[in-house]
Amino acid sequence: MKKDRQKLEDILNVVVKDYANDNAVISEVVRKFTEKGFPIGKISGLFTQATPFSYISDLELCLFTMYLHHSINNYKIDPNHFFNEAEIQQAEALNYFSFKEKTNRIVLYNVDQINEHQWICSKETYQNIVRHFENGLLTYNPKTQREPLKRKVRDRIIEVINIDMKKISEIKEEMLNNTFNTNAIIFNVRRMTGMEKIKYDAKNRTLTIEVDNDTKVDVIDGFHRLGGMLKAVEQKPEMDRLTSVYIYHVDEEKARQIIRQESKATPISEEWIEIMDVSNPNMEVTKTINNRQRMNEMFNRVGLDSFELRRENKLVTFETLSKTIEYVFNLKDKPIIEARKIENFLIELFNIVIGVNYTAFNANLAETRKVSYLADNNTFIGYIALGEELSTKYPDQWQDKLLEALNEIDFSKNNESLRAAGLENNINLSTIKKVYGYFRKLAK
After folding, report:
1. pLDDT over 60 (residue 409)
2. 285 lies in which domain range?
3. Of 101, 137, 183, 232, which one is least surrounded by beta carbons within 10 A?
4. One domain, residues 182 and 306
5. Directed axis angle between helix 165-176 and helix 223-235, to 10°?
6. Over 90: is that where the pLDDT of 10 sits?
7. What b/e string do you get for 408-420 counting C-beta neighbours within 10 Å, with b at 16 or more?
8. Handedness of CA 222, 223, 224, 229 (dihedral sign)
9. CA angle at residue 140 from 36 to 223, to 5 degrees?
10. Residue 37: is it exposed, middle or buried by C-beta count within 10 angstroms (0-12/13-18/19+)?
11. Helix (H) or strand (E) holding 245
12. Are residues 183 and 311 in the same domain?
């Protein structure tokens, strides 16, 4: 390649995100690949991160770049910038039929059933697992994986699959040298309808999974090992190595629980584990506030950490919002209708707060934060305090009273009382109580 492959992958990650819902573009690219015999799932997965770019060959990457460039005519992905003439010719001549066995079935042998939703395959070859991935039958599901990485590509911050290529290279070398300590890879047949095509033959100890639009198989643990297998088998096709596979048939929520269990061996950040925890109703309300698109100024404005607040124009962290909701409303064991009421109340509250100073929270956010606490993370504790106190005192007029309060508060960073109230403190229960108590007194 003329340029570093990672640069092309970064640009493609931006471009495919922009075209992820453009069926015409996706269909055209997939059609050209299927004419060469490539599995639909593998190629369409490149638009959704189900197939990581780092897990396809240089020639496949070249071909994808060529087809996508032809479809959207984006100069940033002109294949001539990244590949030489010989590579482009080799990519054009690529034909999946000539070197791959195409199938839409995963058949695992040496399988024992643990219960109706769990099986164990005691031994499977690296080659078979690689074959399943090459046929587009194994996918990367970001919803059941470790937190994504953030990468700056030109003027944008994008989320990319959390894959460490150095780690994959090390695993590959250990596999080739027969020094890799094998541990089980975990598959999950994503439970969506309960009608997924799974068949277990107890007599022959085989598990057959027919993959189609209604049956997806996610690798929920072991994606780096899979990457190492791909590289190792590519370099040494005849290698004779085995691994075990755990197979689940559960929904994404239960799959995340499995990931949390596995994280005890390979830690995931506490912030991401908390966000994945569907058993916390306060966090679930926070996620709904962040994800609801209609009539919601907080849509996609809640961030994972301070980095996202600074670089991605997020307004408040998941931790701050969820812990404040827990402190003020504590939705644990409360009926779902109560959670919906709090969601609607907070969205209306934040719509008023942001609407009054719309430019300050949007186009001028960075400048606002230099001189004012108006759009700072901890200030959102105060907004909830104002809203809760005023809605209790004035149930029919709280919106008007909130506007009055916002106009009276001096949010300037020269206001020492706000600093003393804890607006610059690290988030913990003590800070939440301190900020909440201060703003509650301002609700007159």
Report:
1. yes
2. 271-442
3. 101
4. no
5. 50
6. no
7. ebebebeeeebee
8. positive
9. 105
10. middle
11. strand 242-248
12. no
